[in-house]
Structure formats: C-alpha cells, structure tokens
Amino acid sequence: MAAALLQDRTVYEQLCKDYLNLKTLACGCCHSPESVQRCKDALRLEINSARKLGRMQALEEVLALLEARNALSMIKVELLARLEPVVKDEEFGQRLACFKVLLKRSFTSVRRYHLEDLRHRDRRTLLEKELEQVKLADPEVIRKPETPAKTEKSKQTPNNDSIAYQACRQDIFDLLTREISRDWNALGRNLQLSSASLYTIEERHPRDVRARVQAVLEQAEADHGMGAGFVQVLGEALLSTRRKDLKRKVEKMLS
User: Fold this and answer.
1) Residue 160 domain flag
2) Residue 46 near residue 66 (C-beta atoms within 8 A)
3) pLDDT tens digit string along 186-198?
4) Cα 138 from Cα 35, distance rounded (Å)
5) Which of 27, 44, 153, 183 stands the most exposed, by the fewest C-beta atoms within 10 Å?
6) Are residues 40 and 124 in the same domain?
7) Do 193 and 122 fall within a single domain?
8) What letter would DSSP give residue 147?
9) What's the total number of domains in the chain?
C-alpha cells in the first residue's frame, strides 16, 4: 500500500514538471506578436473580455489568467491542446500527447494530490489574501471609497441586519442565481473561496451555472456566518465582480 502511494506521488510530481514544461514550450514557440495574437484568438471565448485580451502582450499572461479562473490546470489541459495548431511545434504535440496518456492512466490519484496541494496553498492568512488581491486587482476596479449619504434613518444594529437577511435570504439567493452566470467563479473568488472549493463546485455541477452560484453562496455563507458579516462580504464581492446593480438590489431587499 505504501509503495503504491509513493508511486502515485512520484507520477504526480512528474506530471507537475511536465505541465510546467508544456507551458514553457508553448510560450517559447509563441514569442512574436503575431503568434501571441493567434493564441489569444484561439482562447478568446474562455477569456471573454476584449479589454483584457488587448492588454495582454505575452502568452504567459493569457495562461495565468486561465489558471486563475480554473479553466486551465495540470488536470484540465484541453486548452493547451487547442493551442497545438497555433504553436505548430512537433515536440509540443508529442509531449502533450504523452502527458494526456499518463494523466488519463493515473487521473484519480493525480486529481487527489492536486486538490490536496491546492488546499495547502490556500491556507494563507487573510492579510496575505488581501495583499494578493491588491496586487492582482484591475486598476479600473479600484475606486475611491464612496462617501456615505447623510440620512436621518438610524443605523441598523448587527442583530437587525441578521434578522432582515434571514427574512429575505431566499429572495437574495434567487436573484443572484438568476443574474450571475459566467461571473460565478469571479464572485466565488471575491467571496474568499479557495481554488480547490471552486474546482469542486464546478466538478459537482458541470452543466448547471445556477447550481454553481447557489453552491458558492451557501459555502460563503457558512464561512462568514448567516447574518451581517456575510451581507457585508457579499456586497463587497458584488462590487469587485462589477455588479454594483445587484449590490443595490440586495441592499433594497434588506432595507
């Protein structure tokens, strides 16, 4: 048993190295502006943002964004296969084919080790997460804090916020599951869910985006508490996901 586990771990570590080599090889073959543009065109649907694509000058940036969205990883290499006609490199094609064969042969154990490593990587302090978000944040998303509007209405206490939230919780969830579609992953990251959690949700609901949104909300609610704390985090997450309209609707429901 121990020998089998050791062998599985060895295969996983080798696939990690092979995956990095595949990315390096692809990026090395696509260094000219023309080849980078062809790669961006091949992956345009997954990026789903002409503005972000326009800012990217290297294939490394494109692959990094896809990995951040959990669209690309060492156990999800379909997008690398899509680059094969663009890269036009025999060695890349051969290595990718060998990688896919070995991955298929040991997928269960490799996936387990991969998720364990993701969970370990995501055990970071809240401060580290906040610093990383600042570094990776889109400059257009960073806005000056809004000045609170003067109002004669007294502020709600946390207890009142919790009661209001519980009263319209299902309506809020129904609204967000209807309105959030492809942005479910971004919302999950902004709600501080780990990459491993988002990957698990995607695997559990491969064709149902609404179910993914529901699962993201339920897990974030479990992490932050069913009340004022979650309401505040949800509002900030909707802003970061560029859905200020939904934040206003949620606030209106709670008022």
Assistant:
1) no
2) yes
3) 888 888 888 777 8
4) 25
5) 153
6) yes
7) no
8) P
9) 2
